[in-house]
Description:
- The protein is of the alpha+beta class.
- 32% of the residues lie in helices and 32% in strands.
- The longest helix is centred in the N-terminal third of the chain and has 20 residues, at 9-28.
- The N and C termini lie far apart (52 Å).
Amino acid sequence: MDVTTGTSSAENQSEENLDMMKNMFEDFYKVMEIYFDKQIIFPYMFLNDIQEVYDGEYDEANIYMLMLCDKLEIVEVVEEKLYILVIYKNVADGNKKEIKLYYNTFLGIDISKEYVKTSVEKFGIILKVEIEENAFTCLKNMMGMPSAISNVFRLNIYDLISICERKKITYDDYRVLYIGQSNPRSEYRTIFDRLRKHEKVTSIFSDYNLEYRDKELIVVILHAKSKLYNFASLVCLGSSKWQEYDSVGDKIDDTAIIDVAEAMLIYHLKPQYNIKLKDSIPNINMKIYNQLISAGLKRIEIGINLYMQTYKKRINLLTEEQKIKTGFRILKCDLTELFQKKQEAEIVYEDLPDYMYDIIQG
């Protein structure tokens, strides 16, 4: 009997055994999940515009995908009483569709068509909407809006469709050409610099101009972050509850997280140009592997969210090897697989049913 605590040595030993088993259990299930807390999709031709509009918000994004989708083109615009009727066609198959852009989209109140002027720019990609300046100034003052807001709005056809159809989920196919990264060790200051100047990106852009005239070159940029979790905690992937749990800590730096995220995405999707171009298939080196081992990790998981919630747009990712047509896919790979087999690593995936996705997103 321990006279200071009033417990027997057998009880102490039992508690130590329980603690040891708990630690073993938690260590066995220790997983690093990489998730993307920021993501945006846009046509490559608007790279400079996106950087200017978002003013640094995505500068530190560290993963990007170059993709192709069917090129769309505005063929006619009609200013109706309550809305702007936009007729556009799919350049790949010639099919035409129409959407309605209501005047109250711009300021939240109805505007008379007499004060609105429309035109089409950039070879049918951009709809320019200009509201008569005096009328616009009067409306801004009445609504207490900042004076810096311009009376000219430019919307590309892809965003235009998302805005006009935001009350329903839209599904679009994207063929993934290339996956790359931008990180602090890079000679490029931001991900936008890399997308403008990196030789592999410019090579793909050159091919696009020659071979894919009926397609649009699209960029998705992502910001990868990570969290630890274990199965005993019952914390769902993507849950805000992550914020209550420890991050991976100082043992794993941002470079390791970015390298692992890029590698797993490439190994799983096997995009055309990552296979074709020299040195475009990454390998996890010993330094990064040791960081992950030192942190006690057993497995890496990546959550790929393909549901752009702002406008209810869901993107389908397609390559020769994979077709992702669900809102959320989870990639899973044991750490030893990722290091030893490299691009041949066995990456298991799980697609979340839509009802489960809705529960996770709350």
